[in-house]
């Protein structure tokens, strides 16, 4: 039976590289669905995939993870098209208006935290957030809540005893506990909404395992490392993309000291591809699977314990359920 794989944010970067790598492994046995916000870029991605894999089954679906109504109608469409989903890659993400703290960068360069700084970007980045038309914080809605709602909507095609399905989150090394506050899950107060949303996805993944494992649904998180994509090009906005390329030799050098500099979307997708081949029952819900690239350019996946606890994950889950019920009520009122 063909495996059905849905990838959010599949039209560029790590999501697109994942699709390419999955098709290279098994062109005939997959039904790929690219769930994208921008359909122009989605068409281009589909054409590129079909050029290298002409017999592949690649479908497109319009979905904006930051919009409640878009997620709900996309989920309806998925349920019409497929009886079941084997893999749901929750990959779409944004880090808008990142501010690079040059002072923090130089301070970090000459401190014992230099390796951590290059591995996580901690201490040198802050982000500016916006508000969606549903009244939610944009980064929270795009990276976390839209995906949460999608999972909830897709329960009937994801939960099948006997044949497990997998949820796979693209998290980040930039996810850290200090950026997250249970009393402010959308990160309305603070300067690290991206880090908060990624830490929340780590917590949520644990909670999803607690809730759904009995129903044959498993959740894991990965970190792709530092990858040069449109998301990271925004960090030095006055820097055109081609100038970033000039930094590549320097980045290769840094990679000798920190194998988290995966740099290309192909390398960054390593852990996503690795998880595709694992039995979900054998995975550890408390670790993050990291894509790593050695100084010699070899890719591998390593599990690292996450700084999360069950109690906080359950509390976040309850808060998300509560928010879900609020936004559904609001949506009903709007429709009336
Ligand atoms: N690059 C890096 O170093 C790292 C990236 N990550 C994570 O990897 C994931 C992929 O990012 P990356 O490939 O780097 O960056 P890209 O910007 O190349 O990819 C992001 C993807 O998400 C999509 N997307 C953004 N907003 C929405 C939305 N509201 N609804 C639907 N799709 C949306 C984009 O689509 P569109 O064309 O419509 O904008 C795009 O396809 C993200 O979750 C990111 O946080 C994690 C750690 C490091
Ligand atoms: C020589 C020079 C100009 C170095 C600057 C490098 C930084 C721009 C990168 C070092 C670590 C990177 C990093 C990210 C962005 C770019 C860096 C700060 C992320 C925060 C991008 C988004 C993530 O999810 C995690 C990444 C961690 C590492």
UniProtKB/TrEMBL annotation:
<keyword id="KW-0472">Membrane</keyword>
<dbReference type="InterPro" id="IPR052834">
    <property type="entry name" value="3KSR/17beta-HSD"/>
</dbReference>
<comment type="subunit">
    <text>Binds to the short form of prolactin receptor.</text>
</comment>
<keyword id="KW-0520">NAD</keyword>
<protein>
    <recommendedName>
        <fullName>3-keto-steroid reductase/17-beta-hydroxysteroid dehydrogenase 7</fullName>
        <ecNumber>1.1.1.210</ecNumber>
        <ecNumber>1.1.1.270</ecNumber>
        <ecNumber>1.1.1.62</ecNumber>
    </recommendedName>
</protein>
<dbReference type="GO" id="GO:0000253">
    <property type="term" value="F:3-beta-hydroxysteroid 3-dehydrogenase (NADP+) activity"/>
</dbReference>
<keyword id="KW-0752">Steroid biosynthesis</keyword>
<dbReference type="GO" id="GO:0047024">
    <property type="term" value="F:5-alpha-androstane-3-beta,17-beta-diol dehydrogenase (NADP+) activity"/>
</dbReference>
<dbReference type="GO" id="GO:0006703">
    <property type="term" value="P:estrogen biosynthetic process"/>
</dbReference>
<dbReference type="GO" id="GO:0006695">
    <property type="term" value="P:cholesterol biosynthetic process"/>
</dbReference>
<dbReference type="InterPro" id="IPR002347">
    <property type="entry name" value="SDR_fam"/>
</dbReference>
<keyword id="KW-0521">NADP</keyword>
<keyword id="KW-0325">Glycoprotein</keyword>
<keyword id="KW-0443">Lipid metabolism</keyword>
<comment type="pathway">
    <text>Steroid biosynthesis; zymosterol biosynthesis; zymosterol from lanosterol: step 5/6.</text>
</comment>
<keyword id="KW-0812">Transmembrane</keyword>
<comment type="pathway">
    <text>Steroid biosynthesis; estrogen biosynthesis.</text>
</comment>
<keyword id="KW-0560">Oxidoreductase</keyword>
<dbReference type="Pfam" id="PF00106">
    <property type="entry name" value="adh_short"/>
</dbReference>
<keyword id="KW-0256">Endoplasmic reticulum</keyword>
<dbReference type="GO" id="GO:0004303">
    <property type="term" value="F:estradiol 17-beta-dehydrogenase [NAD(P)+] activity"/>
</dbReference>
<dbReference type="GO" id="GO:0005789">
    <property type="term" value="C:endoplasmic reticulum membrane"/>
</dbReference>
<dbReference type="InterPro" id="IPR036291">
    <property type="entry name" value="NAD(P)-bd_dom_sf"/>
</dbReference>
<keyword id="KW-1133">Transmembrane helix</keyword>
<feature type="transmembrane region" description="Helical">
    <location>
        <begin position="241"/>
        <end position="258"/>
    </location>
</feature>
<keyword id="KW-0444">Lipid biosynthesis</keyword>
<comment type="similarity">
    <text>Belongs to the short-chain dehydrogenases/reductases (SDR) family. ERG27 subfamily.</text>
</comment>
């Amino acid at each position: 039976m063909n495996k059905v794989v849905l990838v959010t944010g599949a039209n560029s970067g790590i999501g697109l590289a994942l699709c390419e790598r999955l098709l290279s492994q098994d062109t005939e046995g997959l039904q790929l669905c690219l769930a994208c916000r921008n359909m122009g870029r989605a068409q281009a991605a589909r054409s590129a995939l079909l050029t290298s894999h002409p017999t592949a089954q690649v479908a497109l679906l319009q979905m904006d993870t930051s919009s409640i109504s878009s997620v709900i109608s996309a989920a309806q469409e998925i349920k019409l098209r497929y009886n079941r989903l084997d893999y749901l890659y929750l990959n779409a993400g944004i880090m808008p208006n990142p501010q690079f703290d040059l002072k923090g960068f130089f301070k970090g360069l000459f401190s014992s935290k230099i390796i951590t700084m290059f591995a996580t970007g901690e201490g040198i980045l802050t982000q500016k957030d916006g508000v969606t038309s549903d009244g939610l914080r944009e980064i929270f809605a795009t990276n976390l809540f839209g995906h949460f709602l999608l999972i909830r909507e897709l329960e009937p095609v994801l939960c099948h005893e006997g044949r497990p399905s997998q949820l796979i989150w693209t998290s980040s090394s930039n996810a850290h506990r200090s950026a997250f506050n249970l009393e402010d899950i959308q990160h309305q107060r603070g300067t690290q909404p991206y880090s908060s949303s990624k830490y929340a996805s780590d917590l949520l993944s644990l909670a999803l395992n607690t809730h759904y494992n009995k129903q044959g649904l498993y959740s894991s998180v990965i970190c792709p490392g530092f990858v040069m994509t449109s998301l990271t090009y925004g960090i030095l906005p006055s820097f055109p993309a081609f100038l970033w390329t000039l930094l590549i030799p320097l980045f290769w050098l840094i990679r000798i000291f920190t194998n988290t500099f995966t740099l290309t979307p192909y390398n960054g997708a390593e852990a996503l591809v690795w998880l595709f081949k694992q039995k979900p029952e054998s995975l550890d819900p408390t670790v993050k699977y990291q894509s790593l690239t050695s100084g010699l350019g070899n890719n591998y996946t390593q599990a690292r314990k996450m700084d999360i606890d069950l109690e906080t994950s359950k509390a976040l889950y309850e808060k998300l359920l509560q928010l879900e019920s609020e936004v559904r009520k609001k949506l009903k009122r709007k429709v009336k």
